[in-house]
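Risk register update: the risk of archive-format incompatibility is retired. Evidence:
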Amino acid sequence: MNTQLKLLTLITALAGVTAFALTGCGKVSETTGAAPPSTSVGTEIDDGVITARARAALLSDPDIKSLDLKVDTHKGVVQLSGFVDDPAQVDRAMLVVRAVAGVTDVQNKVDMKGLATTVGNKVDDSVVTTAVKAALLADARIKSLDIAVVTRKGEVQLSGFVDNQGQIDTAIELARAIDGVRSVNNEMSVKK
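Archived output:
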């Protein structure tokens, strides 16, 4: 079996197991007392498989720098986020992901990188990203595992699907409070 097929198989299996393990199975939230959005275990698994297939398709395309892209899926809608060098990469990524089985729509939440970064910027950005992720994890009001964090030259991009606008507002507030954050770009969407 070739390396890409092995990788796709592994990613698909891990996505399915992870989606199954993280599913709330209709439990009432302990922090808000509200019932979660109606998403079944099957939908969570399907979304995990779609995410894995989309990532594999992006990795296998030589025209796309897929490591610069984050992929998240909710009920078949794929959200692409991150920073890339060229708008043509975004167009190609959108085309590749639309061709993945099970994808019902693709949301473009990708930003352009702009000027080149230095090693110092990359280290600083890694520290900022880690601090933002830690702040999100520490706050019980939001489901931080649903939020991807990418930083470029102090600009933090938050993306993913969350339960409500309050979680978006809290995540933005927490990110802005971190030392080294110049700005926060909200690319999060409320689950439907």
